[in-house]
Design a protein that fits this description.
The chain is mostly beta strands and 138 residues long. 7% of the residues lie in helices and 46% in strands. It is built from 1 helix and 12 strands. A 5-stranded antiparallel beta sheet has the order 1-9-6-11-4, with no helix packed on it. Strands 8-7-10-5-12 form a 5-stranded antiparallel beta sheet. It has a two-stranded antiparallel sheet with strand order 2-3. A hairpin with a 4-residue loop joins β7 and β8. It is globular and about 55 Å long. The relative contact order is 0.29.
């Protein structure tokens, strides 16, 4: 089984007299060329987002406002991260199950991805299917 990686990434914050500038650049804080970005917001109390694994996409999650927890599952190890600062992103390799939960009402989560989304062949939405694919070496 391939060793999948996930880790926190420092996102640069420049404090200026007229406010703060949060900067994330491919090749610096972002270890891939950004091909897609999307945001998750307005998640209702008690709701979860994610609950899937991408087959090929690597991404970084950055909380632009508010906070949530991201549970990461490699199939052999689980870890939960509190994402509550836009100066910390969470890098996720492909084939890592993730669940975002415990959103604050003001949470806005930015995702930067290394691939354009392929709705037909990109996501494992069933956890058991994900585990079988890991065992098969996908």
């Amino acid at each position: 089984m391939k060793d999948r990686k996930y880790y926190l990434v420092d996102i640069r914050c420049v404090e200026e007299t007229d406010g703060k500038l949060i900067v994330a650049e491919s090749g610096n804080q972002i270890p891939f060329d950004i091909k897609r970005m999307f945001c998750v917001k307005d998640v209702g109390a008690g709701q979860e987002r994610g609950t899937h694994a991408t087959k090929k996409t690597k991404l970084i999650l950055i909380p632009l406002a508010g906070s949530c927890e991201v549970e990461v599952d490699t199939g052999s190890k689980k870890e939960t991260f509190l994402m509550d600062s836009p100066t910390r992103g969470l890098y996720l390799d492909e084939m890592i199950w993730r669940t975002m939960k415990n959103f604050t009402p003001d949470c806005v989560m930015l995702a930067l991805a290394d691939r354009v989304f392929d709705a037909k062949n990109e996501t494992y939405n069933d956890y058991n299917e994900f585990i079988e694919a890991l065992r098969a070496g996908e």
